[in-house]
Amino acid sequence: MITIKQLVLGFSLLLASCGAASAADVAIVVRPDLPIENLTFAEVRKLFLGERQFWSSNLRVTLLIRAPAVRERDIVLRDIYQMTEAQYRQYWISKVFRAELSAGPKIVYSSEMATELVSAIPGSVAFMEATKVPKELKILKIDGRLPGEKGYPLR
Q1: Count of domains observed in the chain
Q2: DSSP state, residue 82
Q3: Which of 6, 45, 48, 135 is the most exposed place for a label (fewest CB within 10 A)?
């Protein structure tokens, strides 16, 4: 008789062998009509640091960032921003104070809220657990890789 532990282990190995996104992967998502499929990790970093403010000459980037105390935000702070929570807050306060931007990123409180806002706001970009990305959003490749693929940087 197969135990639940064996069943879970087998299912996990099957998912890994199929290249499915693990629960630990964080996906960068946009609207499907955004004409971008792939960004380098450096471009992702520029987007999230507010250094790239436009997708094209007439389409502004709108950053949607998860509220503190969620795992995806911790991964993004660690890997993309390379900052602590306190450093992140100070970074955006400084950017707005120096008038480099009129406001910091918009805060979203759930994956559902991120989905609604990305769908409603042209040019918006958000992140969420890869397994929770709905079909109406597009996952951007990072350095040619999707969540679940070997070498994907947001784990």
Answers
A1: 1
A2: -
A3: 135
